[in-house]
Amino acid sequence: MTSEHVVLLLVLLPKLEIHFGIIIIHYLMEEPSADEIYAAFEEKVKRTIYIDNLSHQVTETVLKNALNQFGNVTKVEFIPTFFTPCSVYAALVEMESEKQAEEIIQDMGDSTLMISGMPRPVRAQKAKMEMFDDRPKKHHKKIACYWMDPSHQNFDAVNKIKNLTKKHAVEVAYLMEVNLFSIFV
Predict the structure, then answer these.
(1) What is the pLDDT of residues 144-164, one digit of tens each?
(2) Which residue range(s) make up the domain with 167?
(3) Smaller CB count within 10 Å for the chain: N or C?
(4) Same domain for 181 and 104
(5) What is the Rg, in whole angstroms, of the alpha carbon atoms belonging to the chain?
(6) What does the pLDDT look like over 102-130, one tens digit per residue?
(7) Are residues 38 and 127 in the same domain?
(8) What is the CATH number of the domain that holds 57?
(9) Where in this chain does the record put each RRM domain (predicted)?
(10) Integer distance in angstroms from the first to the last C-alpha of the chain?
């Protein structure tokens, strides 16, 4: 090994230890910062489309085959739709590029796409950050809670919001109880 190789090793490897003539190499991996993680997540959201009105018979392979005519599908994730009937499903489809995702949204906006001859035309929209379960938190945003002094100028408004929240919680609990009771009767 020449001195050039040793210098190159010292530049490439952050830490070398020599014990009894044996070189021990430590690989130090740098963790990505919170901003880098969030930026990568934002890019993922830009490449992802939300496809709605899917039949329960549509599988991941069927959806990939249907959308591969527009571009390369990277990932398909089926998500629950709580506000629609049980036979309607939705999916988050990650494409290879943002341009491909925009083309799909535009093409499916102009004409509907029937997947595997299913009787239901699907809809495509841009995905939103709130649709992802694995979204990272922004670390530079901090929520601060503190007790408010009764002499503060916004004390009355905050007190009204607190009472309204309590009222809504009681109403929701009652509606859940009535709805659950009606199911078992």
Answers:
(1) 777 778 898 888 888 899 899
(2) 144-185
(3) C
(4) no
(5) 27
(6) 988 888 776 666 666 666 677 888 999 88
(7) yes
(8) 3.30.70.330
(9) 47-129
(10) 83
Residues 6+ apart with CB under 8 A from 109: 124
| 41 and 112, same domain (yes or no) | yes
Helix axes 98-110, 34-47, angle to 10 degrees: 30
Q: What is the distance between the alpha carbons of residues 93 and 62, in angstroms, rounded to a whole number?
A: 12
- Token pair, residue 20, equals 């009894």
The answer to whether the CB of 93 falls within 8 A of the CB of 122 is: no
pLDDT score of 12 more than 70: no
83-101: b or e for each residue (b if 16 or more CB lie within 10 Å)? eeeeeebbbbbbbeeeebb
Q: Is the pTM of this model over 0.70?
A: no
- Residue 83 tokens read as 């506000």
Local structure of 170: helix, strand or coil:
helix
* C-alpha neighbours within 13 Å on the C-beta side of residue 86: 0
Residue 19: both structure tokens together? 């014990």
Q: Say how many residues make up the chain.
A: 185
